[in-house]
Specification:
Elements (H helix, E strand, L loop, with lengths): L8 H22 L8 H14 L1 H33 L1 H16 L2 H12 L3 H25 L3 H9 L4 H12 L1 H26 L4 H10 L3 H30 L6
Helix pairs in contact: 2-11, 3-4, 3-6, 3-9, 3-10, 4-6, 5-6, 5-9, 6-9, 9-10, 9-11, 10-11
Length: 253
């Protein structure tokens, strides 16, 4: 039997309020809004940017890139993970490749994609997906290695096709590993997307942070960063955690 270790909603809300209080106190003690503006100042910027429509436009551009890169990385990484996990000989040959991709700095991959593909959306999404694919591959590969061999043998006795085994035997057992990849993937991908936009896009949250960084406008930089962080927190609590709970339900059955 497993126990849900996540904090209740009211504790999470109080914890975030506490973080805001610490920020407010630090801003008052520093007394320099150019360095650390107070939460109220940043909130005023968020309201102004929202009313102008710029905040929603740039956040939507970033969100689309996050989702596109996430879907690409999860699809390719899951397929590779299942293949390597179920084919030890292939894994022995390709494991060094996966290790290289895991250790290659994200900045290098981003710059190379922009040089090879160009400063366009395809390069941006491919660069982000490549940074995450190896992590998904490793997680799913370990999940395949942890599969119940008795269930796999039963599927073989009944001569199930590969696709039937994948759907009814392999994939359900991989649920917790896919959920872990999803959570880690979203947490990593949106941060890399900001770097991609910072370096080579003309819109998005990363582009706005780059713009206002050049203007030394700390309040607006924080406004865009916090706004998109809030969006990703909503995705985490309303989508990812609920799906993770369902994926792990069999453990407490």
């Amino acid at each position: 039997m497993t126990h849900d270790t996540r904090a209740p909603a009211h504790i999470t809300a109080l914890s975030l309020l506490g973080l805001g209080a610490v920020w407010f106190i630090a801003a008052r003690l520093g007394n320099d809004p150019d360095i650390l503006p107070s939460p109220l100042v940043v909130w005023d910027v968020i309201v102004a940017e929202s009313q102008s429509g710029k905040l929603w436009f740039h956040m939507s551009q970033t969100f689309v890139r996050v989702m596109a890169a996430f879907c690409l990385a999860m699809s390719v990484g899951s397929a590779l993970g299942i293949w390597l996990g179920s084919r030890p000989r292939v894994n022995r040959w390709l494991d060094p490749w996966v290790t290289v991709m895991l250790n290659l700095p994200a900045l290098v991959i981003i710059v190379l994609c922009y040089l090879w593909i160009g400063l366009n959306e395809i390069a941006a999404i491919v660069a982000v997906a490549l940074n995450k694919t190896a992590m998904v591959t490793v997680t799913i590969r370990e999940g395949v290695r942890a599969l119940d061999r008795g269930v796999a043998d039963m599927a073989q006795v009944y001569r199930m096709s590969f696709w039937t085994r994948l759907r009814h035997v392999i994939w359900p057992q991989l649920g917790p590993f896919v959920a872990t990849s999803t959570r880690n993937g979203l947490a990593v991908i949106w941060k890399i997307v900001l770097v991609v936009e910072f370096l080579g896009r003309s819109n998005g949250v990363g582009f706005q942070i780059h713009l206002y960084f050049q203007l030394f406008d700390t309040a607006t930089v924080l406004a865009y960063a916090i706004s998109f962080t809030a969006v990703m927190l909503l995705v985490e609590y309303l989508v990812v955690q609920k799906w993770e709970t369902r994926a792990n339900a069999w453990r407490s059955a």
